[in-house]
């Protein structure tokens, strides 16, 4: 009988419900929502599947123990007593990451250092040698979470953050995080139901994530490695079965995904990233000023984009820029459902359209709003009749 165990999937603010839904559809049990995380149960195969298939997860952690601590010495002692030789070889390497919510323990880096010391001291005392520390490519990533006096030690099954999908070979100045892009698309209700446009596509992240969703392609298929692949109990045959089963669920996409950008360099980078993700047959990118464009044909259109906020990319006149967004949508894009994310609430007022929906999110540390504008064919009144 394959044993289920508890796992914790970390995500971005506002994506918890989406992630819980993804985990449910993949077959997880005992799902509980937290803040920026979802806990659930599954077996080893499910852990592989969650890493491969979850679009809105940043990490999949496997808690291995929890205990009370009142001093840093308690932490050292409890970690030292754990059988680390079951989880890694002394010839391997480790990295420790800590998050701390406590009045007693206030410095996460110090907690990470104390944990690392306890692990390497145990190996040195038992075997005479100690494992290396490798922050970039360790064979074992360990996560320490302290909430008041409760310390949870987990193994990080993902390795590098899952937003690093493996398809991005080129980056622009203010690229959107892949997990955030996927989450925005899912919150908007995008499933591949019609043509899609990102009129300010930058390096093509939104376009790529839109195609991955439309075709039901596992988002992390292009990754070179997951953390669990360097664990002593990694079962490559099981992983390949999981991957094969996920690929059988890929579906055809009969519509087209388009991207515009006024910057030729961004267009080149977007094309390179789309090629790297093997999605050229579904996505077309061209140099085009959105403000001089209009919708092609009569079919309904889905639009999702991330305009400049005047934070990392500055615009000469941000109010005029946002006003032009509204005018272009009104004039040139009837029959379009348009979604955009911005952290510039002042500029948002100049769009001159009433959003039919607003969702609070964070883009990095910037509090942002995801808004929807529904551009009807003809007048709103006529469309309702």
Provide keyphrases for this structure.
385 residues, alpha/beta, 8-stranded mixed sheet, 7-stranded mixed sheet, 11 helices, elongated, disordered C terminus, THUMP domain-containing protein, transferase, THUMP_dom
What does this structure look like?
Helix 2 (44-53) crosses helix 7 (236-247), helix 3 packs parallel to helix 4 and helix 5 (178-188) crosses helix 6. The protein has helices spanning 16-26, 44-53, 72-80, 108-127, 178-188, 205-214, 236-247, 264-276, 318-332, 345-348, 380-384, and strands at 5-10, 29-33, 37-42, 59-68, 93-101, 132-133, 140-147, 150-156, 195-198, 257-261, 283-287, 301-305, 336-342, 357-363, 366-375. It is α/β, with parallel strands linked by helices and 385 residues long. Helix content is 31%, strand content 25%. The protein starts with a strand and ends with a helix. The chain is built from 11 helices and 15 strands. The longest helix has 20 residues, at 108-127. An 8-stranded mixed β-sheet has the order 2-3-1-4-8-7-5-6. It has a 7-stranded mixed β-sheet with strand order 11-10-9-12-13-15-14, with helices on one face. Strand 12, helix 9 and strand 13 form a beta-alpha-beta unit. The model is unreliable at 379-385 (pLDDT under 50).
């Amino acid at each position: 009988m394959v044993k289920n165990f508890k796992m914790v999937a970390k995500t971005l603010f506002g994506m918890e419900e989406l992630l819980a839904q993804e985990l449910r559809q993949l077959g997880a049990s005992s799902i509980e929502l937290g803040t920026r995380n979802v806990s659930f149960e599954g077996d080893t195969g499910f852990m592989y599947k969650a890493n491969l298939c979850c679009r809105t997860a940043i990490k999949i952690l496997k808690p291995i123990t929890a205990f009370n601590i009142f001093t840093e010495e308690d932490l050292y002692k409890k970690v030292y007593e754990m059988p680390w030789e079951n989880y890694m070889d002394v010839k391997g390497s480790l990295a420790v990451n800590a998050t701390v919510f406590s009045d007693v323990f206030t410095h996460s880096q110090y907690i990470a250092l104390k944990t690392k010391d306890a692990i390497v001291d145990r190996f040195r005392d038992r075997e005479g040698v100690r494992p290396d520390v490798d922050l970039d490519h360790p064979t074992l990533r360990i996560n320490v979470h302290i909430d008041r006096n409760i310390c949870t030690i987990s193994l990080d099954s993902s390795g590098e953050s899952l937003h690093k999908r493996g398809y991005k070979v080129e980056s622009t100045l203010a690229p959107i995080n892949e997990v955030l892009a996927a989450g925005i698309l899912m919150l908007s209700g995008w499933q591949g139901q019609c043509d899609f446009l990102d009129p300010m596509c930058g390096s093509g992240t939104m376009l790529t994530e839109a195609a991955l969703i439309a075709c039901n392609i596992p988002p992390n298929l292009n990754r070179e490695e997951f953390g669990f692949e360097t664990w002593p109990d990694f079962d490559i045959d099981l992983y390949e079965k999981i991957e094969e089963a996920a690929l059988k669920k890929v579906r055809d996409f009969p519509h087209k995904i388009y991207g515009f950008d006024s910057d030729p360099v961004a267009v080149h980078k977007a094309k390179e990233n789309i090629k790297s993700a093997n999605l050229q047959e579904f996505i077309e990118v061209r140099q085009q000023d959105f403000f001089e464009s209009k919708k092609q044909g009569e079919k309904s259109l889905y639009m999702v984009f991330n305009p400049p906020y005047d934070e990392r990319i500055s615009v000469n006149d941000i109010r005029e820029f946002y006003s032009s967004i509204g005018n272009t949508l009104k004039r040139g894009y009837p029959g379009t459902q348009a979604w955009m994310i911005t952290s510039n609430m002042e500029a948002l007022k100049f769009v001159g359209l009433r959003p039919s929906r607003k969702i609070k999110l964070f883009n990095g540390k910037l509090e942002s709003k995801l808004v929807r504008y529904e551009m009807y064919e003809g007048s709103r009144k006529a469309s309702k009749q």
